[in-house]
Amino acid sequence: MSAGPTPASYMDVDWSSLPPPEDDGAARHLVGARLPGVALAATDGTEVALARLPGRTVIFSYPKTGQPGTEMPEGWDAIPGARGCTPQTCAFRDHHAELIAAGADRVFGLSTQDTVYQREAAQRLHLPFPLLSDAALRLTTALRLPVMLVGGATLLKRMALIIEDGVVAHVFYPVFPPDQNAAEVLGWLRARQE
Fold first, then answer.
1. Which residues does the UniProt record annotate as the domain Thioredoxin (predicted)?
2. What is the pLDDT of residues 146-160, one digit of tens each?
3. Which of 18, 19, 68, 74 has the fewest CB atoms within 10 Å, i.e. is most exposed?
4. For 102-127, what is the mean pLDDT?
């Protein structure tokens, strides 16, 4: 698979033309939650059990990255919070070194897409961190993560979690616009460095 440039159509988004997600309360229970001992397949070929990782982990979830030449589900842009997975992911890529310098020990992306699908995105977007697959919905179900049903598929809603020693310390939800999520997380981390 070649890792070509990200098409401009994925990155140049007029966020004002898209319906923003509303805070439906679906993430309120997460702060203070201990992560379950679920191992997730990662695009770097490893398995990651977030509950066992020491220190501070940043994990951002997204519904579904697109692939060049593949159509997104019908009506995708009309679903609040659906569009913007590639801009969100690229923002975490672009801020990765700063996030680590600000106190994150590691960064992961998370979706319910399978690892093969995610691996294409990780290579094409030149990600410095792995994407984690919860295709079996084990973590999603155990933590009761916010989801959306699209075309018969269960997709994660967009959010970011700060996990400290296996416990959720902070939640960013809802996230809009997606391309600002990494900067928002970075600001939170830097505020805790002082």
1. 29-194
2. 999 998 999 999 999
3. 74
4. 97
Q: What CATH number does domain 29-64+79-191 carry, 3.40.50.1820, 3.40.30.10, 3.40.50.150, 1.10.10.10?
A: 3.40.30.10
* pTM to 2 decimal places: 0.92
**Three-state DSSP class for 157?**
coil
Residue-wise DSSP of 66-111: --TT-PPPTTGGGSTTTS-HHHHHHHHHHTHHHHHHTT-SEEEEEE
CA 55 to chain centre: 19
**CB-CB neighbours of 25 under 10 Å:** 9
Over residues 102-128, the mean pLDDT reads 97
Burial 147-181 (b: 16+ CB within 10 A, else e): bbebeeeebbbbbbbbbeebebbbbbbbbbbbbbb
